[in-house]
Each structure stands twice: as structure tokens, then as C-alpha cells.
Amino acid sequence: MQHRDEPSSRPPLRPLPGHARAQSSARGKVKGAAAVHRWFLLAEAALERNVEPLNRLNVFPIPDSDTGENMLATIRACRASVEASSTEDLGELFAAAGSRAMSEAYGNSGTLLAVLISGLAEPLHGQQRLTISGFSRALERAKVRSWSALTDPVAGTMLSVLDAVHSEVHHRALRAEEPESRAALEAAMPYVVSRAFLAVQATREQLPVLQRANVVDSGGAGLLVVLIALHSTITGIAMDFAPLQSLPGWQQPPAGHHAADQHAADQGPTDHRAADLQPGDQQPGGQQRTPETGSPAAEPVTETPAPDGSEVMCTVRLDPLGAASLRHQLDDLGDSVIVTPIDANPDEEGTYRWRIHVHTLEEPRTCTTVHAAGPVESYAATALHHSPDNSPDRRPAAQAETTHAPPARDQE
Predict the structure, then answer these.
(1) CA 91 to chain CA centroid, nearest Å
(2) Which domain range does residue 90 map to?
(3) Tens digits of per-residue pLDDT, 72-128?
């Protein structure tokens, strides 16, 4: 599958008109840890403003209309993590933010965004300011982490937009006369956002399900919104969402029409896992693992599964071999499988916390399999195609916690 986008093969880019204007933000430029905080604050505000169109675009992999809310929850967790930290090290900030976001993440896009943010951390450890060359290295690592988190990564999604963004940043870093200067990073950002916009536009033609619904990928569009916030953080130019209005499916459709409804009508009343099957293929199945007695774990929080199946989100403590084995078993029980480590380092027994996501028609077997694999710190199963409650914290009530954020860090 081709998903790489090399700089040499693309036409010249120009900044989007909305990002070329010298319209100053009221709060001006910030740098270092304050800039990370500002980015998450602006990204939170940007996603709040655009949550409805992002939800409306959501048709892949499941049209459950929650992409905007899931990505917003991830960014809120990142912002809260930064506000609770006193470090000036960018790597430490992104690592902590990504870990917290992953432990609270929901949905494909919410989880992948948390993985992306966590992936930015490693190349930025020891750095107190972001440069175009450092950003390039961070995006390379984020790209590897994000593609490898999914069992079956697909082009035409947030992953393709991430690829395009990394390609553009790498290209700009190579061309910069002074790649360690703030000016080089500022000069690159309009082109980065423009490249992300083109990549989002292209998703409609990359996935047949998006083409049928005449929409772009919701996760990719959400990443574009987050990058618009990053552009504003770095350049001091106010966020401008006007170009998003031209994205297929972004504007409010005629009354009674919804992209997810159109997708469901096209698909018919079929098993969501059969969408990509060809004639003669067999329906995904799998052997049931013998239950084992596990160590004390969080009580599963489940809803009665709808005919469309369930989305399972859980955190399990495993060593890497155990995580690989669990991934293999989950592949037999469902699809949209994400298995990714939350922790950067193992505990004394060599285990990590792993965040797990899967869509399944066999939630009871999935629950048994997960709990047999290792100590489960949290487990939640929710019916697919049921829009979640628009609350800031979508975790089950038994796991919810109250956080009191200290004053904002980006005071100038």
C-alpha cells in the first residue's frame, strides 16, 4: 500500500489565504513549555468550535458520529497534563500529555491522536524550544508510532494526513538556511497547514466509503484543526477556519441528511466487519481463549451490545510479548484494533500499561480474552452507532475523576 508522499513528486505549495494574512493574535507569540500549553488551549477551543462538523463527517470505520468529541477529549487530557506539570522539557511534557491522553482515550481518532502526541516526545527530550528540524524528527517518530499502533492501517485517514505533514516539515527543514532558528519554523507553518489541507481533501478519493458519502475523513480533518491551532501558537496569527468550509461534507447538509446515514444506507444491514470482504472471503471469527484466573482488576463497565456490536476501550498491564499475543487474539474477535503502550518505560516486572481499542460483535468473549491476558486497570464497552453524551469526561462514572487545574502557564 502506498502511503508515503515524497516532496519531489508534489506541485509547489502556497499558504492558504486565511493563513497568509498578518492578523495578529491578541496574546502574541510564546515559546517553550508555555507554547505547548498554548497549543493545547487553542486546539481545545478549535475542536470545541468545530466538533459538530467533525462528528457529522464520521463515517469510517464506523459511522458513530463521535470523532470530534473523541479528539476533543484527548486534547483536554493533554492540556490538563501540561497544567499539572512544572517541567520546561518539551519531551517530558509531550510524554506525560500523551500518556494521560491515551489512558483516557476513546475511539479510533481519539486514541490515534494520543499516540501521535506521545510519539512527538522521544526526539524532543532535553529540548526547551521547538525548531523545524526538531519538529521533523518528532513527526517521524509520531508517524512510526501511529502506523504501528493499528493492526490494519488504512490510507485515506488521519495517518495519510500525518504522512503528508511530516513530508512537508522534513522538506522545509532541509531547505531552511538556519533550521534551528524560530524564523524557519514560523516560515514553514503556513505551508504545513496548506499541505495538511490538501491531504484532507485527498482522503475522499482514497477511501471508497468516503467517496460514496462525498465527505473527507473526519480524523484527518480533526488533525487539520489541531494543526491550525499549532500554526497560531507558533506564528501569533489568529486561527482561521474559513478554508474548512470548502471541504466536502463540512457544511451542514440538507435537513434530514447525514453523512453517516448515507453510509449506512449504502452499506445496508450488514456486519460492519464484512465491509471490506470480497466474494468468497470468510467472515472474521477466531478461536476462544480458555479463561484464566487473573489478578484483581477494574470491574468491566458495559452496555447491552447493539446489533452493530460494541466498542471496547481498556487498559491492560502486559509485557511486549503478551501485548502481541493479545493483539493477535483481538484480530480474530473484531476489527479497528489498536494496541499501543502508554508508558515509556516498563515497571520492575518488565510490563507496560497498554491502551486497547477494538470494535467487536463478540464483546463477552473479548472481555474474557482481555481479562485472561493480564491485570486490567480499566475496561469499558459501549454500543456502536450510539452517539455519546456530550460531556467533557466520557469515561464510565466509576472511573471518572475530578481534576483541579492550576493557573495557566503561558503568562507573558
Answers:
(1) 19
(2) 26-247
(3) 999 999 999 999 999 999 999 999 999 999 998 888 899 999 999 999 999 999 999
Domain with 85 in it: what CATH number? 1.25.40.340
Same domain, 121 and 214: yes
Rounded CA-CA distance 163/5 in Å is 7
How far apart, in Å, are the Cα atoms of 5 and each of 81, 85, 165, 219?
Answer: 33, 36, 9, 19
Q: How many residues appear in the chain?
A: 412
Does residue 1 form part of some domain?
Answer: no
Residue 151, CA distances (Å) to 148, 154, 247, 326, 360 in order: 7, 10, 29, 12, 14
More confident residue, 66 or 372: 372
How many other β-carbons are positioned within 10 Å of the β-carbon of residue 310?
A: 25
Whether residue 170 is found in the same domain as residue 301: no
Domain co-membership, 38 together with 172: yes
Total domains, the chain: 2
Query: Closest by alpha carbon to 360, among 407, 301, 309?
Result: 309
